Amino acid sequence: MTDVVDSDELLRRIQRARACAEEEERAWRTRRDNLRQADPEGAREAGVRSLAYESVLRVLDEILTPGRHDDEA
């Protein structure tokens, strides 16, 4: 990738990535909740994936709004 992007485009890309990560985190959390009774192992895996996306969200939030999660640590 050799495209040069300005700061506004970079911000838009980060915001899109955050929105995507938020959607995925929500989907995996829902899947975890739905699988809890029928498939505990599947629920565990979905829970791990949900946590991974939650971590990505925290990182992107820190880029977009530094200090937002300082009080939650």
How is this structure best described in words?
Helix content is 74%, strand content 0%. The chain contains 2 helices and no strands. The longest helix is centred in the first third of the chain and has 29 residues, at 7-35. The protein is mainly alpha-helical. Helix 1 packs antiparallel against helix 2 (40-64). The protein has one domain (7-66).
Key features of this structure:
mainly alpha, 0% strand, single chain, elongated
Provide a concise account of the structure shown.
This protein has 73 residues and is mainly α.
SSE string, helices as H and strands as E? HH
* Biggest sheet record: none
Report, as a whole number of angstroms, the end-to-end distance.
35 Å
Low-confidence runs:
none
Helix content: over 70%
Question: Could you give the count of β-strands?
Answer: 0
Number of domains: 1
Given the helix and strand composition, which structural class is it? mainly alpha
**Beta-strand residue percentage:** under 5%
Gyration radius from CA atoms, angstroms: 16 Å
Indicate the mean pLDDT. Answer: 92
Q: Based on Cα principal axes, name the global outline.
A: elongated
Number of helices: 2
